[in-house]
What we know:
The complex is a heterodimer of chains A (517) and B (501).
Chain A: H1 5-23, H2 29-54, E1 63-74, E2 77-85, H3 89-106, H4 114-133, H5 137-146, H6 148-158, H7 163-190, H8 210-214, H9 223-237, H10 246-253, H11 256-281, H12 294-313, H13 318-337, H14 349-380, H15 396-410, H16 416-429, H17 433-459, H18 470-474, H19 481-499, H20 502-516
Antiparallel strand pairs in A: 1-2
Chain B: H1 3-29, H2 32-42, H3 44-55, E1 65-66, E2 71-72, H4 75-100, H5 108-127, H6 131-149, H7 155-186, H8 191-200, H9 212-229, H10 237-244, H11 247-272, H12 276-301, H13 307-327, H14 341-371, H15 382-385, H16 387-401, H17 407-421, H18 425-451, H19 464-482, H20 485-493
Antiparallel strand pairs in B: 1-2
Helix pairs in contact in B: 1-2, 1-3, 1-5, 2-4, 3-4, 4-5, 4-11, 4-14, 4-19, 5-6, 5-11, 6-7, 6-11, 7-9, 7-10, 9-11, 10-11, 10-13, 11-13, 11-14, 12-13, 12-18, 13-14, 13-17, 14-16, 14-17, 14-19, 14-20, 16-18, 16-19, 17-18, 17-19
Amino acid sequence: xxxxxxxxxxxxxxxxxxxxxxxxxxxxxxxxxxxxxxxxxxxxxxxxxxxxxxxxxxxxxxxxxxxxxxxxxxxxxxxxxxxxxxxxxxxxxxxxxxxxxxxxxxxxxxxxxxxxxxxxxxxxxxxxxxxxxxxxxxxxxxxxxxxxxxxxxxxxxxxxxxxxxxxxxxxxxxxxxxxxxxxxxxxxxxxxxxxxxxxxxxxxxxxxxxxxxxxxxxxxxxxxxxxxxxxxxxxxxxxxxxxxxxxxxxxxxxxxxxxxxxxxxxxxxxxxxxxxxxxxxxxxxxxxxxxxxxxxxxxxxxxxxxxxxxxxxxxxxxxxxxxxxxxxxxxxxxxxxxxxxxxxxxxxxxxxxxxxxxxxxxxxxxxxxxxxxxxxxxxxxxxxxxxxxxxxxxxxxxxxxxxxxxxxxxxxxxxxxxxxxxxxxxxxxxxxxxxxxxxxxxxxxxxxxxxxxxxxxxxxxxxxxxxxxxxxxxxxxxxxxxxxxxxxxxxxxxxxxxxxxxxxxxxxxxxxxxxxx
Amino acid sequence: xxxxxxxxxxxxxxxxxxxxxxxxxxxxxxxxxxxxxxxxxxxxxxxxxxxxxxxxxxxxxxxxxxxxxxxxxxxxxxxxxxxxxxxxxxxxxxxxxxxxxxxxxxxxxxxxxxxxxxxxxxxxxxxxxxxxxxxxxxxxxxxxxxxxxxxxxxxxxxxxxxxxxxxxxxxxxxxxxxxxxxxxxxxxxxxxxxxxxxxxxxxxxxxxxxxxxxxxxxxxxxxxxxxxxxxxxxxxxxxxxxxxxxxxxxxxxxxxxxxxxxxxxxxxxxxxxxxxxxxxxxxxxxxxxxxxxxxxxxxxxxxxxxxxxxxxxxxxxxxxxxxxxxxxxxxxxxxxxxxxxxxxxxxxxxxxxxxxxxxxxxxxxxxxxxxxxxxxxxxxxxxxxxxxxxxxxxxxxxxxxxxxxxxxxxxxxxxxxxxxxxxxxxxxxxxxxxxxxxxxxxxxxxxxxxxxxxxxxxxxxxxxxxxxxxxxxxxxxxxxxxxxxxxxxxxxxxxxxxxxx
Lengths: 517, 501
């Protein structure tokens, strides 16, 4: 691949966003902005495909490095502009490209302040891409925090329900987590033996990364504390029980495309951070390693899965239901991570691979589910499950794809969710049998709430006291071709990975092995 | 004066001549638009001359110093000269509408000319290497501002002008007192000579700076410049003057005056008291001032209801952050590498802050000129009334707050990083805590701009010149945040004052 590919990929959406905002004028401006933004997302998607395909699996390691050493040329702060992908980040970059394109199409029906809307959406894509390809901790942190601004704006200005409350809650939770992370970053940096911000070693460039330097080093603060700082930041974002409460609010009140992005890729930044930083940095540190807390991690993961599942069963709002199911599903990611085991000998790479794959599949499946809820809501103007029923006859396409998302979510074989969950269970069971056994019930709960919702909303008879008048019900229409574009974009990977998982898992495995060293 | 002296002083001379040309042109044409045009075009002359001194386009001057070693056109001074010229160009662009307004009709030329004279003083100030020259340059930079602050002759304006005059006179007196002590003790007013003599004078053990006389002198000098830098406890004039003076003047004051004061204090400290043991002594003094300034500025800003006053307090806090960089001296370096990260960070912060603060002030000027209401409540719902101006304002405030990826964030990271490196971890912690306090009042303003419903619904857009000025400032805020090396490399090569680099 050519020099600067990653830089272009990351900054293309933001550049287009700013240019469009500054220069798009005139009568037809909304239409133009919409098309330009979709085109920008499509090009970004193409670039992310190039990144993914261009990643040479035979070579492995960090590839497509963009390096500018003197980004912050201060001796006191040796932070460089260092972008690169490895097996861990390449699939997530691709995922961001897919979801960015889907989100742009899903925003087709936005009518209010179109220009600003797309500006924020594209800036959001840049921020997320930046998180996945940054290999310098400070740069990583900047992108991680920058994502808040577009997200906040998108929820507040285009959200429904109580957008200000939800957006503020989201920002405060994440900012608090971010503050902890910054302290952790500085503590690692000021450790005399470390003194670098590079997250990985790149021998070709003479860069020795933090994981190697931290091995056996005495850190500026106790290692357990620094681990905790990062863990809190990512646990909030993932989210894990008990710091998950921002997620249902943010999801419920965000516009459809933003929910897709939030569930699809923003949560993955946390999973990625856990893998790259908490797992990657704290394997051989003095006094404390991740192996010491793998057990508690498994237990929290099991609680998250079960708690999330039980709360989901009680939801009556479709969007809230899917939001809570995310808590449960991201619990599987944490469970897979805990397969790192109580010592290096116990580590099960299969569990970690499962966690990585679960991130990818959850991105597409939940993204699709939010999209379908959005399409259904656009027509019925209610998400209250008891008010709905029998929609199958009126909108069969929406019902079918809703069902696909549901099946993917509950882990039906041949769909990607199954592969990810089975990998997590198989990998983790040998390491933590009891928490895994408990968490496995999450799948049963998932089957329960998913099938119950789909059955009630689409296939059951209309309720005795319907939320929709007969006239509204009669006039319901199915998805149009424009609506179907993002649906197809998100549904395709679910089938592809379900039938041919190694297309992603092979790449993830390279990354996981590198992180485990 | 030799040819070399002219060469070294060429930017200042050009600037002073420009001030005279402008006032003459104003007398002849009586057309304020033409005068403005002449001013803006004329500003390129000192800029080109300063660039020439940096890059040596037309050949290098024979010696860096001029007028018997009283001024020096080193890269450190040139860095600030570029900044000052840019800031004055921005201020003039932002004042176009102001000057063309009816009540300013008869003294638009005077306004511009006074501004240019003040800039001349500041340019001289940043290159002065001798105490008397520093004093004269300081007066030249301050006196025009007195007239500028009171130029409207409103009650508030005159109050602002008088306040600034009295306090600036007092601070000059304190400064001179300090200078007198230095001269009395070492027998020279030349900064380098002072350093040489101090090195040979026997010192008392256990006394900061080796002698109570020097200690007192340093405290008096810092106090004298403390007024200009607007750091606590010499900050009382700031909110009143900012509120009373015309907003472009307040913008100029908050950026140019502050930058030149920081430049000269860094030069005095590093050139005259640059001995490593002395460095550690004054580092402690600045660290304390930094901590107090950040905390007091931010806490007092919490309760403000007037936007200009709020910005006044915010600049006090920002001065505190810059002082963190000044306090992080190489002598306290933790590692073995000898580096000027502290002063470099302070220069980066000053330049980044200049762009940020100008973006904020210019947007406020454009908005208040239309609404006539400079309370914070007056900004309610501004995003709906004037999307572009409101966005620029919000962007600038985000940078003041220190949100990535703006220059405000980067600059804070750099100065706090340099503090950690200079064994001042406690100061870095206070700085971080302060950014959280500051987030409260900055976010309150942003909330009003973005989410509240406007009092009036009429929409408007700013005037072209001020939009250009605010836009350029905002672009700088973004670019220098994304690509910090642009300014940092520049600042690094301008660190000519730090001994040993």
